[in-house]
Amino acid sequence: MRTEKDSMGTMEVPDNALYGASTQRAVVNFPVSGHPMPALFIRSCGLLKYACAQANLALERINQEKADAISIAALEIYEGKHRAHFPLDVFQTGSGTSTNMNINEVIANRCSQLAGQPIGSKIPVHPNDDCNLGQSSNDTMPTALHLSVALALQQELKPALQLLSKALDKKTRAFKKVVKIGRTHLMDATPITLGQEFSGYVRQIKKALTRTDHAIVTLKELAIGGTAVGTGINGHPDFAQAVVTILNEKTQLHFIEAKNHFEAQAGRDDCVDVAGQLQAISASLTKIANDIRLLGSGPRCGLGELQLPATQPGSSIMPGKVNPVMCEMLVQACLYANSQCQTVVACGREGHFELNATIPLIAYSLHEAIQVLANSAILFTERCVAGLQVNEPAIAQYLENSLMLVTALNPHIGYDKASHVAKRAFAEGRTLREIVLEEKLMSAKSVDNALNPKKMV
């Protein structure tokens, strides 16, 4: 152990730790869940500290030596290095101050290492005076929150949804000539092609991609520059814009300085909006997964219109049983993501006066939801959708036996007579054609033409 000092006094810190006294206090105070802050959130903090150092250098608030040292250490964090030195639990101080100081201390101690100075010496860089110059946890943590979630949406969720969209579109084209019975209320309805059915899924995912883009835009305002309460105390008036410019160069995203720093720090409405978009995406994925597993139910006593890829044994007692496990996985992932989003909505109500004090939990929940949705969508695409096959005999049998083809007779014999035909056919176990011809309601040629399923789609 080594002894480090912060504003509360001395603290024993593990010798090999790059963090310092303030972080160690939080390690001791918050051993709650064992869930650390999301990796991309920590990486984004590193990118933010790099941008702040470069902005302070340009504004002549820090010298070249300190700016270079901070930049090297901060970019190492952005690249995913030193992950073991960010041990803090999600359930910590609600502003994220502990994590902000964790970042500052790791950067400062890494700068000491690079300069050949002892860890904890705060030479050549001080964690507060230099790493946190012109900043507060109250503006850096909301900024890192928006930055990291926007990156997650762009780099994780969008590619996953694009992959699923392409796979579903491929199936839409492959199934375009397969005429089948439609279903509403889980009951037989008029015909549809399997391609038309899948085109609906494609459109849902395309809308999910639009919602993802909307969520990214929603996060474009950054709180940096507001410092403690939004007034920008101890900051430079050009600091925020300088930081935003650097972040945009690094991410190719279109961030802007918050139009009102008091809202940007006190409210988390933008994150609640993002949670809502993710819930809509979860609903779409759940609908698709449930439809596919129902269409593949059987193999002999269910619908069985689709044949799902067999990925693993389905039962420990029933030999040969295969279950729609990839569909079930996706549904569970969506339920979990939805619950994380509900947490974000609740957190959004926890803003009091000039600060929302649930930032670490919002960060954790949004990143969890995005990661789980992205990973599950990729697996569902690769191990289910890509291998879907059509069971044409089952589809043809359902189509031939469907009573709802009677709908096409309405223009010829009217609703009431058509209803009578359907009910009699069902009661006697006969076909619609047989009843129509027996009651001399239409000629054979006319009824055959009217009941042709291909003309109903």
TrEMBL record:
EC nos: 4.2.1.2
InterPro entries named among the record's database cross-references: Fum_hydII, Fumarase/histidase_N, Fumarase_C_C, Fumarate_lyase_CS, Fumarate_lyase_fam, Fumarate_lyase_N, L-Aspartase-like
Subcellular location: Cytoplasm
Domain Fumarate lyase N-terminal: residue ranges: 9-334
Residues annotated as binding substrate: 95-97, 126-129, 136-138, 184, 316, 321-323
Site, Important for catalytic activity: residue positions: 328
Catalysed reaction equations from the record: (S)-malate = fumarate + H2O
Active site residues of this protein: 185, 315
Keyword Cell division applies: no
GO MF term list: fumarate hydratase activity
Pfam families: FumaraseC_C, Lyase_1
Keyword line: Cytoplasm, Lyase, Tricarboxylic acid cycle
Pathway annotation from the record: Carbohydrate metabolism; tricarboxylic acid cycle; (S)-malate from fumarate: step 1/1
Statement: the UniProt record of this protein carries the keyword Cytoplasm: yes
SUPFAM superfamilies membership: L-aspartase-like
Miscellaneous: There are 2 substrate-binding sites: the catalytic A site, and the non-catalytic B site that may play a role in the transfer of substrate or product between the active site and the solvent. Alternatively, the B site may bind allosteric effectors.
Binding partners and assembly: Homotetramer.
Record function comment: Involved in the TCA cycle. Catalyzes the stereospecific interconversion of fumarate to L-malate.
UniProt protein name: Fumarate hydratase class II
